[in-house]
Every structure is written in structure tokens, then in C-alpha cells.
Amino acid sequence: ANPNGGDYHGFTNNDRFNFAPLNLYITPWERTNFFAQGLVDITDNVQFYIRGLYNNRKSTNQAAPEPIFIGPGAETGGIADTIVISADNPFNPFGFNIFESQLDIDNGAFMGRRPLEAGPRVFKQDVDTFFVATGLKGEFVAGNRPWYWDANFAYGRNSAEQRKTGALNAKRIKEALGPVDACAALPGCVPLNLFGGQGSGNGTITQEMLNYISFVQNDKSENNLRDFTLNIGGDIADLPAGPLGLAFGYERRELDGFFQPDAVVVAGESNGVPSSPTRGDYDTDEFYAEFNIPVLSGNPGAELLDFSVAARYQDFSTFGSETTSKVGFRYMPNSNLLFRGTFAEGIRAPGIGELFGTQSRFDAVLADPCAVPSPSANCVALGVPSTGFEQINPQISILTGGNPNLQPEESDTLTLGFVYSPGWVDDLSWANQLDFEFTFYDIEVDGAIQALDAQTQLNGCVADPSSGLCSGIVRSPSGAISSFQNTLTNIGGIETDGWDLNIRYTSPQMDWGSLAITWDNSVVGEYVETDPITGTSRDIAGIEENDSAIADFQSNLAAVFQFRNDYRLSWRLRYIGEVTESCSDFLDGTSNSLTALGLCSNPNANEALSTNDLDATMYHDVVVNFPTWKGLEFELGANNLLGEDPPPCLSCSLNGYDPSTYDPEGRFIYARATYRLQ
């Protein structure tokens, strides 16, 4: 209680807002899709084709009410940081201008309020995707050898509109909290009451207040692709082991796109995530050639030996030119065993959004290492007062966006493996086919395009202020982070290796039908990311971070029962191995930290080193396909049939689980009908 009277008290964790229940756990959507294609014989050797696709997606997302943070310590980077609550605001109980004094500014004072009266933020998307491809394909004879060619043009467009309700206008919030006379002079303006909270549950923000500070936000975006390709292939000579094959061609790609936020957002008046219009384009010309070179065929100990060689030249309007190559081999000592391998260079150009996307803000849940009563010398050197500070808000605003200086990602990929199809299966009564496929891979990516993990960047900055990781991190006089730049960049690189083992089995035709089994297994040996600034590396295989994880082991087992009466039953088992997350948060050192509350499966006295295991997870999916009737195909299925829950993720944002790795709670039951014109 306030010693001077009233019902105000010092801020505690009991005052924090739990936003998770108001976020949608599963996103509802509706899709409408049309596809058509046609093929016409122009001559005996030339065909014309055309195919088109249209898809419309309507979907909805929901988030908790848009928080109002105002004052010099709000750290929004916008109008909200400059708001002063006027002394003559009729709801200001203190009788003086709040956030106007130098003491408030130096101490980073701020006020936060979740306007539950406004209801949740609702985002409705309406996305149209259109694609059409057309061209000619045919064959001709040159030097008494057949050659094949095709010339193609494709055009694709993706346009999206998003309508957000529950958005707030920071400029109008400032006017409604300012001098009453100034507010009265503005049409529709009424003083805003941020004091008193929800009270009995109805809240102190009236509908009249909401009408003035709220707006409906409409954003638009579009991406276009134009692609022309010409391909020619055939045999150019006969070698002892077979024909020498050649394929070559040309491709021209043009890409452009734009993003147009709502006018209120463009003006910098939005209380939500800031952004500005962006537009960009680039094009590329590419030439390629491929050779298939047979060396041995039908020899003892060498049933087959051939090599493939390919090269591609790419000229980008934004980056200049690059040449990549590929070599591969296949060797069969006998008809049952095939060895194969490839070495390939690759390149991926950044997309329109990665290059030209303007800065936008997202609020990440981060633990500031400097938010302690006795900060380290490094923290003091970064501008944190020696008396320390308390991190009140776990969400730190991160600014990210495109980078026109990005360079393409470059990769080297090595694969080695074998396929074993034993001939002795022919003598078995219970097997018609049995294949074993093993592949080892080693991939190195140089200049991978992504933003650094924000928590890793912050920790690295505090550990070594001279490392360069502090660039873009600005602190207020109170010591709290007031700005955090986390733009896309070409990180130092990624190195990963592992192996895949796949087994295929098909039974012979039996009285009841047949059975086909597929078992795919994937093991990740390492997934090492290298920091471009410090040169330090870390292996994130089996680690959960940024709402995603790369499990060390995953396995999918599928069985398909094809019955003689044309019914088909498919069952699939999906297994995801255990992963580990950091079990540290901004409350480390207090009785409310994750470790102190007993939530970490692997607690450590140094709370920053505590970890939590996300248990291995297994899902079962089933599908029943019914016999086709007059062109109508019908199927009934269920994903996650047994209702397996995803493992709780303490570091994941929003709903406490990793949606990129695991299914949501509950079963997904569906029915599908497909009609094919006869």
C-alpha cells in the first residue's frame, strides 16, 4: 500500500499481464483453388501447352490487446516516448505533468496499460496467388540424332491485403492525454483515462475514448515473377558404354515487389509496429550446360559407371555474376548395389523482401544481463549506472528489415551414399521389393542470410563491448535498452552434416491386397553457425531457440494397405527427438525465475546456464481413401490421431510451444472430395 494513502503499490510480478490466453492457438483459414491445363499438337513434332493456377487464402490471427507504453522509458522509438500526461487531465490524480521532469527522463520512467476494453488485435489476411505458364516443346533431328527442346514463359503474382482491428493511434493518445483545452479543440477528442485499471472489470477506458484513439489498419503487398526459359538436350556422340548426353539452356528471371503500410503507420502515428513503404526489383540472366558421360556398362564388377558434369553462369543486376558447378558419379558393381555421390556449388540470391524490406519492429522476450543491482564493469562501460536497474518489461523492441547490401548465399554440398536392392528378395514369399538407401551429407554455407539471434547478440555485446555486437544497441540514461537494431546480414556461415537412412518395402499381391512400407530416418551430426563479427561458432543441433529447433534425430514410418476392393488405409508415425532450450529469463536472480520456480528440468546454480529438455514427441496420422466413383475421389483422415501434446517450451513466445517443429494440441480431422473430369 502507498504510505501516503491511496491504493498504489510497488510493482510486482503479480501485476504482469498474461497475454497468452488471448492469442489464437490455431489459425483459422479458408482456401479456394482453381487449376487448369491444356495441351495442343501443332505439328507432329511440336506441342503447345498452357496451365494456370489461382489460389485465394483468407485467414485470421489474433493477439492480445495492443499495449500502451508511454513516457521516456517506453523505448518505442516513436511518439509514445514523448507523451506527457497533462496536469489538467481530469483523470490525472497527481496534479502535475507526468513524464515532463528531467528526473523522469533520466530515470527512464514510463507507464504501461493493456487496454482490455479495446479487445484483442485481430489480423485478417486476404491473399491471392496467380500463376500461368505457357510454351512450346518439341523434337528435331540433327546429325541423325534426336534432340529435344522447350521454350517456356511463366508469370506469377502474389498480392495480399491485411486488415487489423484493435490498432491504436499514438498521436491521438498523446492528444487525449495532453491539455484539456487542446483536446477539446480537436474533433472527436476526449480526455483519456489510463488510471484505475479494470476496476470491477469494466475498465476505465470508455467507448468514446476508444473511438478517438483507435483505427483500422490496412496494409498491402505484392510480388511478381516473370520467367523465360529455353532448354535443348540430346546425344552428341556414342561412347563404348553408351551415348554422351548434353543439355544446355538459358533462363531470364525478373522479380519485383512492394509493401504499402497503412497511411497512419507511414506517418509514424501508429502505436504498434512501425514500418514504411518499400519497393524493389532485380533480374538475372543464367546459362547452363550439363553432360552425362557413360564410362563402363555391362562389365564384370562394373555393371555401370557414369559421371555427370554441370555448370551454371548467373548474372544478377544487383550483385554481379557468379558461376557454380556440379560433378557426380554412379557406380554399380552388380545389379543389386549402386554407389553414388555428388559435389555441388550453390548460390541463393536474397529475395525482394530481404533486400528492400523497410525496418519494422517486433517485441522479443529477452533477458538483459545488465539488469542487476550490481552491474559488471562491461555494463557500466556500456552506459548502465553503477547502481544498476531493474528490467521491468521482458519484451524489448527489436528493429529489423532488409539490407540492400546483402550478397548471395554460397554453398558447397557433398553427398555420398548407396542404394542396395537385394536380388534374393525375388525368392521370398513375403516381399516383392526391398530397398535400402543411405546418404551422408556435408553442407557448408558461406554468407547465410539471416539476422543474428537477438539474445546471443545481447549476451555477446555485454561479454565483450568491443566485439562489434553492440553496434545498434542503445541504452537510455537509466541503463535500459532504448533501441536494438537487428537487421538482416550475411552471417559468417553455416556448416552441417549428417546422414539419412531410408528403407522401402513392398509386399507381393495377396488375397486381401498389398502392403507398402516406407521408413525415413534423419540424423544431424552438427549444425554450426559462425558469427560474422567475432568469428565464434556454436553448434545449435538439438537446440531450441527463436521458436524453432533442429532435432538431432527424426524418423517417419509410413504404411499403406491397398485392399482389393479399392479401399486404401495409410498410417504414418512421425518421431521428433529430444531438444534442449535455455531455461534462463529476465527474472534470473529472483524468487520468480524459471529456475527458482522449479520449471527447468536441468537447473544450475548459475541460472543463465539452466536448461530445459523438450521431450521426444511421436505423432500418428491415418487416412482412409474410398473407391473412386464416377470420377469422384473421397478420403477421410486425422493428423495426430492420439492427441499428443507438444512439449512445453519456456523460451518460446506467445503460446508456450514451438509451432515450427511440433503440431498444436489436439487432433486435426479432415475430409476431402476430389472430382476429376473423365
Can you walk me through this structure?
This protein is mainly beta and 678 residues long. The protein has helices at 102-106, 170-177, 180-184, 207-213, 263-266, 352-356, 377-381, 454-463; strands at 29-41, 46-63, 68-70, 111-113, 121-142, 145-168, 214-239, 242-260, 278-299, 302-316, 320-334, 337-348, 360-365, 395-400, 409-420, 433-446, 449-450, 473-475, 481-484, 489-490, 493-506, 513-530, 537-539, 543-545, 548-549, 553-563, 568-576, 579-582, 611-614, 617-625, 632-639, 668-675. The protein has a 20-stranded antiparallel sheet that branches. Strand 26 and strand 27 (568-576) form a beta hairpin. The model has no long low-confidence stretch (mean pLDDT 91).
